[in-house]
Amino acid sequence: MTTDHAPDNDAELPQAITRKRLLQLGLLAVPAAAALTAAAATSSGNPGESPQALPDDLEPTPACHDGDAATIAQTEGPYFKPDSPLRSDLVLPGAPGVRLTVSGYVFNRSCRPVDRALLDFWQADNAGAYDNSGFNWRGHQYTDANGRFSLSTIVPGLYPGRTRHIHVQVQAPNQRVLTTQLYFPGEPRNNTDSIFDRRLLMTVRAVPAGKEGTFDFILNFR
User: Fold this and answer.
1) Contacts of 8 (CB under 8 A, 6+ apart)
2) Nearest CA to 39 among 24, 50, 29?
3) Can you give the pLDDT at residue 51?
4) Residue range 97-101: average pLDDT?
5) Are 203 and 162 in contact (CB under 8 A)?
6) What is the DSSP string of 100-160?
């Protein structure tokens, strides 16, 4: 899910009680009434009680609302290999390239985070080449209980005919596999790559260590 979306359905609720806020507070797994009460208490406090302060460095959570469109599928391409290693860090010691962290969440179409969703990533190296004999720049991982994932890698290189991209397969337990690709904003070849789709653009920013990208997947089930 990119950041281009309609306003949250929860927009009329106090900020502390939106679905995003409940995810921040780790309350989505508890009954709704209890979650709302706890969130409200955290925000403003009960009479006679001091409000519970949240850590200043609390990681922001994504915008999501019921009915969001599912993440679109794209071609697998010729370089997928099954049985990739279980790992979230694909970086090879001493390998050239700009360091990149890709993180986000996996939701279903009811905006519920998907625990233990499988994400299998593969990409080209800094020179635009895929490792077809081994498993360099390939790996799979699982989301945590909040549906979150994080990948450490490098910005993939370019090769003829394609813009810069990362391949991924996403699968919730007992659900169908979504095969798609993630793209980088501001790439000149985005305008000429016939496979590119702006709905799959990550949000990318520069950081001292390299770049950080975010993207949230929405799987087509409720």
Assistant:
1) 18, 19, 20, 63, 64, 65
2) 24
3) 47
4) 98
5) no
6) EEEEEEEEETTS-B-TT-EEEEE---TTS---SSS-TTEEEEE--TTSEEEEEEEPPPP-T
pLDDT, tens digit, for every residue of 6-32?
333 333 333 333 454 455 445 454 444
DSSP state of 1: -
Query: Is residue 165 classed as helix, strand or coil in its secondary structure?
Result: strand
Phi, psi dihedrals of residue 115, rounded to the nearest 5°: -80, 140
The 10 Å CB-count burial string (b at 16+, else e) for 187-197 is beebeebeebe
**Residue 20: per-residue pLDDT:** 42
**Measured CA angle at 170 (ends 109, 89), to 5 deg:** 130
Q: Which residue in the block uniquely carries the two structure tokens 């997947």?
A: 217
Helices then strands, each counted (H, E), the chain:
2, 9
Lookup: tokens for 144: 């945590």
Rounded-to-integer distance, Cα 50 and Cα 200, Å: 43
Q: Are 18 and 8 in contact (CB under 8 A)?
A: yes
Residue 31 exposed, middle or buried by CB count within 10 Å (0-12, 13-18, 19+): exposed
32, 48, 104, 220 from 144: Cα distances, Å: 21, 36, 11, 19
Distance CA(201)–CA(213), nearest Å, equals 9
Backbone angles phi, psi at 78, to 5 degrees: -90, 0
